[in-house]
Specification:
Helices cover 47% and strands 13% of the residues. The protein has a seven-stranded mixed beta sheet, with helices on both faces.
Amino acid sequence: MIPLIIVIAALLALVCAALAFANGFVNQFGVPRLTRRVRFTKDDRILYVVAHPDDEVLMSGTLSLLKQRYHLPVHALYLTHGEDGPTFDLVPKNGLKERRTQELARVKELLSLDGVTICDYPDRYLANQDFDAVCKTVWNAAEALGSTYIFTFDESIGMYGHTDHVAAGKAAVCAAKELAGVKGVFQMTLPSGMLSLAMKMSRTFRERYDPARGLPRPNVAVNIYRWRNTRYAVTRAHETQTAVMRELQPYYDKLPRFLYYAIFDREYFYYREKPEL
């Protein structure tokens, strides 16, 4: 009996050590926690601005924290319906717009969003639209909601090189500069360890990520382990984008959630206060 207990204890120790090593590899320690960088008040209003349905996945843990722990109103602005994306053979291409709108309804429920607005800018061609018009769209939404913080993409590479993402990030920052009530902008990013892993495991990153432009260095980290089930559910809600989700989060649906999110337990942002925009 005692040898068996020793073996089990040794195996558990090895698993814990492996998880700790993996967690240390992908994460960047020393990045300030969200609550140390920003003091949210009951009057704050959150708006996230993205290009496509499913773009919110990589910040869904943070959105859950803001909504569930701080009880802040959270609204979403999607600039396209994502109608040019893959279908995963679930619907014909001409039915994708409607299907992705239905998937967003599920996301709204999972994240307890206070509102979702979907614009009709063309998917894959957002960067070709009149920039001032896109900025005005974001400005109108943020002004109507009294938004104080905006979450979006970076303005350089849009996470991995998607021009729609870059356009969304630029438009969000443009609107934030002009709105007196906006205190700051959070832009999704990755630490060097996660980026290195993505370059090895994700074809999307290998083919589209340009190190010369690169992601901004994170200056805010959010531990999302408590919200892992929500992030997983939000990811799965985008059924037509299953192949994309597997590309951007390798093995998220293969490993037990408690193990996967013990490693990938943080979301990262590049935060800029109003004077830095």
